[in-house]
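Feature request disguised as a bug report, sorry. It would help if multi-protein outputs had a clear separator. Right now it looks like this:
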Amino acid sequence: MRGLGPSPAAPAATGRVGVDREELIGRVGELQDEFARSSMRAQSKEMLDQHLTLAQFRALVLLHGQEGLTMSEVADVLAMRPNIATGVVQRLEDRGWVERTRDADDGRVRRVGLTADGIATVDGIVTEARSDFLDLASALTDEQLGQMASILETLIVARAAQGRGAAGTGGAAGAEPAADTDPA
């Protein structure tokens, strides 16, 4: 792990020449990894306080703000086998954080969504994580904050353009009908 001191990419970030784009992108990736690792402690604490596994946390975050996803969509977006996703959702349902309901258009299809308690749980975790991030961001100058906002907006647009920004886009959604349908 590289320290936070000056880096070979720093001159390019200040407008100096001599560092190629690929090196700079590599350095940004390293810094993003380092920041993610350093942020894991706070995120892990919130998950542990709620007795959540990483898979359960990912499922809660995925379902937050969604109308209701099929189990195939949940499995696809979380990149897990449908039977594993079903187990994760079942444990969250047992805790009262998610519910499965019949699809209004096709009664065989079950949709998964957060309950009010599930929404409150995710909101609490997100609020803590956001508070931690904003405390860190307060160390930045106004100019740096403006740059960061602009960069994040650009990255969000780029992610959406790649088609990975929304749940259930493409992939194998619907490929596992047995996980979504009620045998009755």
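(second protein starts here, but nothing in the output says so)
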Amino acid sequence: MDTPSSAPHPCDAKAILCFWFEATKPKQWFRQSDRFDQCIRERFGSCCHLAQRGDLDHWAHDPHKSLALVLLLDQLSRHVWRGSAQAYEGDAKAVILSLDAVQNGWIDQEPLRVRRQFWLMPLLHSEALSDQCKAMELMAHYADPATAAVARRHHGLIQRFGRFPHRNAILQRPNTPDEECYLRAQRRRAGHPSTSAPADLPQKPFADPPE
């Protein structure tokens, strides 16, 4: 079954957490599926819009609601607006929530590794080198070795290019010659015909089992 059945109102933090961590399978989180994207778009599209607009900022004061807000801004938005610049509109806000969660001790207090990893995922998505440095350190401490390896690779990309080259086409940024060579090599390696890499993350960020 590719798409979870419908459940409670999407703008409920508990419903969002239950959907992502219980109703879906890890293989669905990062594998492109038009059906799964449409499911998220129908259930959570309006909430992603509210989150990006700031209407759910009050969720930031509670650890469970704040994690749900991170999911809206950093994960679900990527499904709702796949292939559009709006998919990245919530990234900066999600980074702040992630760093606040570290500062507040919420990640340290979270017993489930998978939730800790999604708390920290905005740092992996950031194009700021300082955030990538934090991601390497924090993923090494809180995540599994596979995700820590993803953090090191992302740090290497930002250190080399100052941004993620595979976002350039979506964000209408011209490629530098170095980026064009990198993207061409990535397409050859993946057998992917498009002008950008297929995803923000490599294919196996978690040891157990996702993307």
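Even a blank line would do. Unrelated, but nice: The first helix runs from residue 13 to 23.
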